[in-house]
Amino acid sequence: MFLQYPRQKPRRTVRVGATVALIGWLAYPAWARQAPPVTLSETPRAFVLSNGILTVQIDKYSGNITSWKYKGLELMSREQGYWSQVGSTRHFGAKRMALVRVSPAASHGAEVEVAVRALYDAHNPSDQLPVDVEWRYTLFRGASWLYASALWHHPPSYPSFSVGEARMCLKLNPAVFDYLVVDAQRQQKMATGYDWDHGIQLNLKEARRLTTGVRAGEVEHKYDYAAVLYQTPAYGWTSTHDGVGFWMINPSFEYLSGGPTRPELTGHVDTVLLNMWLSSHYGGSWLAIDKGEDWTKFVGPFVLYVNSGSTPQAMWHDALHRAALEKAKWPYPWVDDPNYPSASHRGTADGQILVHDPYHPHLEVRDMWVGLTAPDYPAHQPVGFPPMVDWQRDAAHYQFWVQANRDGSFRIPNIRPGHYTLHAFATGVLGEFEKTDISINAGETLHLGRLIWIPKYYGKPVWEIGVPDRTAREFRHGDHYWQWGLYYLYPKEFPHGVQFVIGKSDWHRDWNYCQPPIIYGDPEWGTVWQVADSIWSIYFTLPKALAGKAYLRLAFCGSRQGTHITVLVNGRVVGDTGPLPDSGVMHRDGIQGYWCERDVAFDASLLKAGQNVIQLKLEAHDWPQGVLYDYLRLEVSPTTSILTGTRE
After folding, report:
1. DSSP labels, 270-305
2. With the CA atoms of 608, 609, 611 and 612 taken in that order, what torsion angle do they form, in degrees rounded to the nearest 10?
3. 70, 158, 431, 593: least buried by Cβ within 10 Å?
4. How far apart are CA 282 and CA 405, in angstroms?
5. What is the DSSP letter of 336?
């Protein structure tokens, strides 16, 4: 809850020059410029923005969207369109200020922008987040969408703070919206709030078996609608009876934490729509700013888009088209803020990354991501994570990622000036490319030329399981992972654990998407009676005994706090992974989260001529302690001559 609204609050009006204000309007087609002008009306409590299509009401104290009407139809529920955070304190700053940043008069009816500031009160610091936040809303003539943005600023004099989640949450009108669209695989008519309230709670507070409504008998779990936001340009709710859609669109991902591999919540039952720009879910980010740091982050502007259509699919495709148009406009020329550089004050980097794999010279690299991120920096990290914050955990800075062309060439546009590290990872290549000390200057293009990536090997590959792509997608159930309770199937499907035979078994069928503990319970009601250790076995045959050093390379894309894997070779313990990071992927019904590699070295003489077995033992303490493998590979030092495995 926000603090009580005082009876009188000061309000400042910020007048923006007509030339700047008109830039956004002139970028729209003629039909939009011929639409009715935007208007702004005010009450002591609220701003009301309108353009004849949308009428949006903003609370002057909380910054909440309290009403949203589209062609007269109310789309908001219970006055709940709000910004929130979960961290070291509950509330944003107590000193509030409402502003008109762009008035309709100054823009000749083309644009209106209002803002609400929540400023930290150092004289009354109790239960306040020590950061100044400004929430902004911008509406243009002829647009059926509203831009939302937030500016966070921590002056050096403020105390330290930490935040685990920060988001915009929209609770839409349940009398209108009944159909959720996440992506091509997840589109359905949804249960209602009533259905949720009358469901039966299972093993998680977020999971209930529904007993009423269109999804009666199914399990509702909000994490089943999580998605990688970089791969989800538009997601939202539609109405099967009113023919209207409400969509979340991020035209850029520079302000999102965790990079292009992090999944996040999108929406869920009770007509909730989210934009989680910061979250620790799936091993993601935890924002921590110390006293003495002068830190600023500009979140957005992102797009709250409303449309009409005959079917949910038609409206979704229209929203995807709008997302592509908005992406092409980034950075928006109408944003007037020194913390948001214009296109001319940003830089570009281009080049080509060529993978020279010594054991696979004809390897065709797919789906390469190339990005510029802040250099790794030290911070207190939970057990299992590295001591330095990498791009997967960073939320304090901006990130700039693109997908390279098939030949490895790339061009990263619209980069904020600064000092960066270049990263790349790709399907089919274990590990990551890195080049430090990259400086980007405003208005310049940095030509990086040809960069050679030689993947790391300890020795010659003997065999491999899976495809290095930072997910468990290629394994059993990986193609329909968004289902609660798949881990309950493991004892039935693998009564003796995974028994994988190199050269015979098929990892799509014979390697489970996760290695859970053996869970004894009732999946119908989500009960857990007992858990037991889980042991997976990998069998392979060698033509002769070996000498030298062997290395089992284990790439993980999901694990739980306190979990580690013990490795046995032909019945003998040779080492373990140490504590793995807490990404909580399995119990959130995912196939990817924080990625890491743990390598276990052992004496190659333990491998003998004929059949060998390597076992992976997970010690069970609690049922969520499952791990997800991205990829496994056995290597032996080059001094040993052996046969190599084949790739799928």
Report:
1. TTEEEEEEEE-GGG---EEE-TT--EEEEEEEEEEE
2. 20
3. 431
4. 28
5. -
